[in-house]
Known about the structure:
Largest sheet: none
Strand content: under 5%
Structural class: mainly alpha
Shape: globular
Mean pLDDT: 85
Order of helices and strands: HHHHHHHHHHHHHHHHHH
Helix content: over 70%
Low-confidence stretches: 420-433
Number of helices: 18
Radius of gyration: 21 Å
Amino acid sequence: MAPAQLSVLFFMQLFAIVAVSRGVGWLAKRYLGQPQVVGEMIAGVLLGPSLLGLLAPDWQMLLFPKETRGLLYAVAQLGVGLYMFIVGLGFRADHFRSNARSATAVSLSGMIAPFAVAVVLAPWLRSIPGLFGPTVTATQAALFTGACIAITAFPMLARIIHERGLSGTPLGTLSLSSGAIDDAGAWTVLAVVLATFGDGAGVAIKAIGGAALFAVVVLGFGPRLLRPLGAPAERTGMVGQTETGIALMLFLLAAFAMDAVGMHAVFGGFLLGAVMPRGAFAEGLKRQLEPMTVLLLLPCFFTFSGLNTQLALVADPALLGVALVVLVASVVAKGGACWAAARLTGQDNATALGVGALMNARGLMELIIINIGLARGIIGPALFSMLVLMAIATTLMSSPLFELVYGRKARQRGELGTLDDREPIALPERVAS
Length: 433
């Protein structure tokens, strides 16, 4: 395909992605009470072979031919990496310090139980042809499955907590703290799997050593070295183009470094965002980067995931049964363990159930993990499709389940505002000049 042809088709792809994502996202928010981003996840699947390819395969191949997948993949990685950089900008260390005992217990239980279930499930899943790559060992399969089950969508969790009126409440703080710790643990396990899934010890040492060195340098020296970058914003109340350009260049270098050592751009993006200067600089930078990232780039990631999702593979009764087992095991292991840990650390039953419901949202983080697994040959298309279904189902059920076990009664008692009165999620307000 000539560059001129690729350009024409690429713009049409972006139009279709944005239009469908915004439309389905609005429907999900308007009629299902779900965050916009949940609808965008579903929109990505609808544009792939699971719906558009099923109803109009010629049109689907015309819009998303294989020759354009490489370009769309690169844009998708930029989108998810930049989104995690923005998430890092909003990361609050005080969530770890408050309610530390319960948060630690919930997070550890929310990791240990899923990995225990994964150890049981992995041998069975490996015995089914095509679910895992041919060279994946039993240990790698168990670790990867455990990471998929244990992950909590920290950005999605933050949005749900905001929409449900839980920001600043003990339950909201506990859930956010536990989710952040869980994600850190799951990403660490994924890093080990990626490092061992290569050509010898050299690849593992390069990946683990490179990521560890990057984390030490960024977390140890980043805040002090980057502090001057935020000084102009504190003086003027706005972030200039020079500071924005420097921040973007640093993000691109961080993403490059993590990709180069064999990890993933999201590691670099999130860690760098977490050490950027706070206050006017972080808020102004988010205001500049978030609209383009959320409206254009991130939906490309959901669409790329959707192009790899073939729900028809799961239509086989045997594989559908496998998918249901994975879903039920994931919900029970994660939600049940978090509920039990919250109860054992002094939380009442309703609060513990609410924590379990919220911690089950997997969303974007799950899609990132399984896309990495598919690209590296750890899992096959069938298991990828099952895990996409699991990610969507657990995210869809989080808000309604929370309302059932906690939110509805808490609102009746006046402890939470009514959902009709809550303000819609908005981008950060403009920093006054």
